[in-house]
Amino acid sequence: MLGGNDMSPLQITLIILIVLVVVTAMITYFVRNNYYSQINELDQEKNDVLKKAPYEELEEVSELNITGQSYEVRKNLEKKWQDIESIKYPKLENHLFDAEQATDRYRLPESKKSQDAAKAAIQEINADIQDLKEALVGLIEREQANLEKIDQIKKRYHEVRKSLLAYSFSFGPASESFEQKLSKMENDFTNFSEFTVSGDHEEANKIVENLRKNIQETEEQMDAIPPLLEKVDEDYGKQLLDLREGYEELIDHGYLFPEDTILDDIETLKEDQQTIYTYIRDLKLEKASEAIDTLADNIDDLYEKMEKEIATKPLVHNLAEDTKRGIYYLQDENRRLNHAINRLSQSYVLIHNEPSILARLESQVKECRADFDKFNEHLVEQSVPYSIVYDALEATFNQLENLNDEHNKVSKYLENYRQEELDIKDDMLDMEQSMYEMKRYLENERLPGLPKDYLELFFSTSNRIESLSEELSRSKIQLIEIRKIHKMCQEDVAQLEEMTKEVVRQVELLERTSQRLYRYKDSHKGILETIRYSESLFTEDYDFDTALRLVREKLENVDPGAYDKVVENYEKENVQEI
Fold this sequence. Notes:
Helix content: over 70%
Number of strands: 0
Pfam family, one: EzrA
Subcellular location: Cell membrane
Low-confidence stretches: none
Structural class: mainly alpha
Organism: Atopostipes suicloacalis DSM 15692
GO biological process, one term: septin ring assembly
Function: Negative regulator of FtsZ ring formation; modulates the frequency and position of FtsZ ring formation. Inhibits FtsZ ring formation at polar sites. Interacts either with FtsZ or with one of its binding partners to promote depolymerization.
Strand content: under 5%
Distance between the termini: 119 Å
Number of domains: 3
């Protein structure tokens, strides 16, 4: 190894310990010095705060000739300063001393705690001194500030007094209340002077603030009252008079009103008007405004009641004429439909219970006629308010509209009997024509015969169409039964058309497949036998389906895919519709 001398583990450990001790000492030295610096900074902050102490203000306040509340305020402020000097300041000194002592003994956490307490105490003392100084200055300047404020208030007071004298009529019942308020303000001015002379500037300041609020309130009330009185006197007072005159005129012209309490309501509104005057007299302007809004709404309601009867009068006469025409029309409809039912019931079994429906409708029309006659009599005699008659006639007219809808429905039922009969007859002729065309189409194919299931369906369909024809030929037609037979005929004819197409298709494919299979008669055994057997099934048994299946399977055995080509070629060349 280099050097030639090896250090033992003990020597290495000793060196590490020495290094750690030196490093720790250095760190502790620097941290301790930093703590001393922080404590010095706090001490400097303490001195800076104490320099702000309001010694001059305290001395000036102590020389003031004050009494009453001002004197009590001075005592409280002096006590606050004594608390700072005798309690808070010593505590601050103790925190700084404890921090320094803890740092000397290397009790750094304790030092930090004391420093934090000192910092909080400095902030508290600083805030207290600032508040104390402002309060002392306020107390010193209170007299002058009060005099300046009272001077402004007196100017506003004199303006209010002049307005009240010049325009007392515009304030109505509130004039007396304003006089009382101004008189009280005069007493407050006197009290202010007495407290100021005696040196109780705090109590004088309370009077100043109270005067300021009162004069502000009085000015706002004097601005608000004339518009309120104008509404109550000019607007709503005239409207109440107009309502009474209008009501009496309408009564003279024969108008009536439902549950007529309009005169009582007008008297009640006049009482509400007096209540509003009372609120204004007592300067309860918020309540007065709310009462005015309610009065306006109630006046509008009365106008609406009267206007409704005026507007309803021409409408109710028009509605009466419309209702009368509606009744006459439905009575004619009843007679027309009764005649139609009597006529149709001789040829058809009615299936919608039309006679009972029409009897009910006829009874309801009679009820509407009775109601109409009753209210029309009231209308002629002017014994019921127009609005009530209108509502009753409107309900009757709406019922007549509903009855008319039901009459139309019955009329449609009756019209449909003959139309449905004609439609079914036309469709039956079309089905008979289809049967004939299918028969001729198969005859043209010159087939040896037809499969049994086809023949069964053909003849059963023919019989069913014949049954339908018989039902349609009866003297009194039962449409419900005819509908059932007609639907079955439609289904049978549709099925027969599909079977006809399939028969022709099988015959064509049988011939083409046999021809294609015949090509392989020399190269494959059993071809001719299969073809002959298939022909016998076709010509003797009329089993087209089995005959086609035999040649198809044989062709697929000798030439896979050939049958599909036969089908494809057939479908390209023989697209037919029956």
